Amino acid sequence: MTRMLLVTDVQDIIKRHQAQIITSLKDPDISIRRRALDLLYGMCDVTNAKEIVEELLQYLDTAEFAMREELSLKAAILAEKFAPQLLWYVDVILQLIDKAGDFVSDDIWYRVVQFVTNNEDLQSYAATKAREYLDKPALHETMVKVSAYLLGEYGHLLARRPGCSPKELFAIINDKLPTVSASTVAILLSTYAKILMHTQPPDVGLQQQILTIFKKYESYIDVEIQQRAVEYFELSRKGPALADVLAEMPKFPERESALLKKAEDAEIDTAEQSAIKLRSQQQTSSALVVADHPPANGFAPPVNNLTLVKMPSQTVSDTQESGVSYEEAPKPPVEAPKENGTPVEVQNRDTNITEINNEIKAEPPSTSHSTSPGDLLLADLLGPLAIEGPPAVEQNPAQGLNANQSPAGDLALATLDDQSNSVQPIVNVEEKFHILCTKDSGVLYEDPYIQIGLKAEWRAHHGRLVLFLGNKNTSALTSVRALILPPSHLKMELSSVPDTIPPRAQVQVPLEVANLLASRDVAVLDFSYAFGTSLVDAKLRLPVVLNKFLQTITLTPEEFFSQWKALTVHSLKVQEVVKGVKPMPLSEMANLFMSLHLAVAPGLDNNPNNLVACTTFFSEATRAMLCLIRVETDPQDRTQLRLTVASGDQYLTC
């Protein structure tokens, strides 16, 4: 049956017998138990991963020692490849270490530390779980390593919780010191130094306890521990300057996961060996859980260098090479196939894309709220961008910024539910798009056979995206095709995509972007592939939206008001009263503005119920363009507000 998993049409049939296969893990015959484990490992995907991994964790309690190492390795790999949430992944790995510490390789706990370090949302949660495990009377040394590391780096995030003060964290970790080996002692010494650094105000008693331990280990027989003790002792006497030396660990670069290679080495079943051989011939890899990274928009230009009220020229030429260099995108934990070729420019297909966003004309303030500029401005800011709306007209830079409007193209952007695919996504594609409008990495699309991830970085009016196409199954995906349908305001170049994605492989496809001028239109990825007899076609909106080309800027009150007063032209300053707004506290609105790269300027408006923000917009046409925003709210009625937006570009303002 494990061999039969390589046949596409048989996979779903085998999954129907999952309960019986799990029961076979308790069979008296060890050969049957091994085959059941191999089969569960082979049939696991995103639809059943959580159930299978949790069953494997339960089985760890009763599994014989001969199977525990292989069982732990496979559970860790499945948790990494098919984790529905990173919090669940952290829980699984910590349970795995707790249940089978002797059989958990260093690669497994290194990997969870890497995920926690690279994902800020996980750090407080992981530190909390580590603190809970330290309360157990009997704890495996590997768990001591992981817990000490996590609490050293992120224990200060728990400082206000009961039992999590620096002194209490030190005491519970120090209780484990006499029972651990030299390699763990080295980690504990580093943890003590980090705890001391984060103790503010300084605790003289705690400092003396930690310095005594450092002094004790200065004469330790192990050279590594001796060196750490000497250095930490001297550093700890620097006081506040200690923070400059013992900074928080930076994000790890994405690297190839060592777990997959270990899995192949551990396979002893003949059927599984044949599957490994087939996959190795097709250059195997694994799906990736993409980490969030903060946006990289470069450095803000001085205020006096920004274009304020100057109108852009009437024609827009093709984007020229600006000399902006990009750092190489972090590599995923698996090696991508080498079929990626040189980038091929994708020409604008103005007649092949339906405009799904409104182009707004500058109009005088009006009390009508049907489709006023203010309504759409609010949707742009709080949407996070307005990506829904009645069909709009097209804006063609080749005909000038004031060109006549023309109808949209013939190709409508269908939602996935409307497409005649037999294979449907297993994620909310609309929700994923909205998330990626304010984040620079994540999952764009996923179905039972493929996951499309995205990672992006932005500098001024240039962007670089990497699409991660991950084949989640043991059969190849064929007839793979990716085509970018860009709106007229974007210049986009997509690298070539291989026709076939091998089993369990991931392909990286770079996409270069240049923003020509302000617009609310969205580019579309027309992606299709074949899996067995199924042909899947998905048209996905790419989160290359206006706020990606914004960069926060700080203005003094004098600078802000001088520019605010200078923007008096009707088309450069739009004001609307918007009703029917979802009530939102000002603090929440300020956080939303920051996620959109709009810098909230507290104190500029004397009314505490108002919000003032400023940002810089980058495009080929306008270069750096200052944009000013004011939101006036009524504390008696949070369902309405007055929104004013001003900039030197009428298309950016509207």
Automatic annotation (TrEMBL):
Residues 314-350 are annotated as: Disordered. GO terms for biological process: intracellular protein transport; vesicle-mediated transport. InterPro entries: Adaptor_Complx_Large_Subunit (IPR050840), ARM-like (IPR011989), ARM-type_fold (IPR016024), Clathrin/coatomer_adapt-like_N (IPR002553), Clathrin_a-adaptin_app_sub_C (IPR003164), Clathrin_a/b/g-adaptin_app_Ig (IPR008152), Clathrin_app_Ig-like_sf (IPR013041), Coatomer/calthrin_app_sub_C (IPR009028). Keywords: Membrane, Protein transport, Transport. The keyword Aminoacyl-tRNA synthetase does not apply. Residues 314-323 have a biased composition (Polar residues). The keyword Protein transport applies. It is found in: Endomembrane system. Its main location: membrane. This is AP-2 complex subunit alpha-2. It comes from Zea mays. The lineage of its organism: Eukaryota, Viridiplantae, Streptophyta, Embryophyta, Tracheophyta.
